[in-house]
Amino acid sequence: MALLSKQERRHFPDWDDSEQCKFHRVAVDLEKCDGCKLCTIVCPSNVLELFVDGNGKKKARVKENHRGCISCNNCYAICESGAIEASHHYDFVGYYRQLGRGEFSKPRIF
Amino acid sequence: MFVEPSARAIRVEDPEEVEKEAGRSSKITVVPEGAEWNAVEQVMLQRRSIRKYKKAQVPAHLIRRMLEMGRYAPSQGNCQPWKFVVIRDSAIIQGIEDFCVGECKKTSSAIDYASMPAGSFKRFVTRIKAKLFNRLQPNMMHPVPVSGITAIAEGRFAVFHHAPTVILLLMDKRGIGVPPIDIGICGTNIVLAAQSLGLGTCWIGFSKFLNQSPEWCVKLGVEEPYEISEAITVGYPVGNPTHLIARETHEIGWFEDGKKQVLY
Ligand SMILES: Cc1cc2nc3c(=O)[nH]c(=O)nc-3n(C[C@H](O)[C@H](O)[C@H](O)COP(=O)(O)O)c2cc1C
Ligand code: SF4
Ligand code: SF4
After folding, report:
1. pTM: predicted TM-score of the whole model, two decimal places
2. What is the ipTM of this complex?
3. Which CATH number fits domain B49-88+158-235: 3.90.1150.10, 3.40.50.1820, 3.40.109.10, 3.30.360.10?
4. Over the range B165-192, which residues count as b (16 or more CB within 10 Å of their CB) and which as e?
5. How far is B156 from chain A, CA to nearest CA, in Å?
């Protein structure tokens, strides 16, 4: 018994199809974000940018066209306002489908 | 000449009997349930891959301290299949950066159809080629590193992150069993030591492009039977990337008392 079907093992997802390559969009809490810009400079996938909101304040957001938030939470680690967090992993259809994953969780004490 | 010894060898049945008889038993200590993280666990949890560094150089003695921890890593058959190259010369770091960026540009334009104009002939042909490579080298052709290579090619991402120090981990290809595992463990020691010393690090898999440059291999002393396995950048992190983050849990098969449980 295999976890991936024969068909899945033969299917390599199209890199340009967001249905086949599901990259998570991190959520920025605009109330909390103070526009310090640090998340945008440390994000390894270059998916975050600053913009000016309706009140003329700088805030972070995910770029419209992006390929590849890797759910590393570098943005969360550096954000001193607690405004941003990845809570889902990337996933793919076919050969690269994620297996045996549970929910995101902070370090648990046992 | 071989002489059969007359006295019989003492057979050791139970190692715990041995330590007891010798009066040299070790104590069992159990960290209580729910105890806070100890210093080592804290270091493991706070380590992040750091890709933005301050300009300040890391004092040489701290690099030596880190490599000393690498030296004590376990390895298959104690074969220690590693060799370190430390680069702290900004001109050389820029040189290897430029070379790897060049390789990323070539690779990206050879395979990454997703970055090519929609509907173009080049995109159409490249897609067919990429699908074939994908099948032949599924680990390298995962969508994540491919988009990383294109980001480097387009100048949105760096290879060595402009770090003040780069450590190359060279692997002796003759290592026992599976030498890349030993390199991974050795590097983990180095990276965790760095974290405990207040430094930031990042593993650089894209450093492997350097193996394709005979010039750089000669200059850096990468010769047969060695190859560059990985690199680690080191420096002082920008900002305070210290918050403990969430990560997904993974399935754990747990066999005990004749039962199997699945935990996460
Ligand atoms: C063997 C290895 C190679 C890696 N290569 C790169 C690389 O070339 N460039 C990079 O920016 N990050 C690289 N990384 C870092 C990973 O992206 C990172 O470890 C992962 O996203 C988890 O994030 P964390 O290290 O902050 O916990 C590498 C990691 C490992 C273990
Ligand atoms: S690090 Fe936090 S506060 Fe700073 S810009 Fe990013 S989300 Fe906003
Ligand atoms: S989780 Fe990582 S890749 Fe995704 S937005 Fe945050 S820093 Fe960028």
Report:
1. 0.95
2. 0.95
3. 3.40.109.10
4. bbbbbbbbeebeeebeebbebbbbbbbb
5. 7
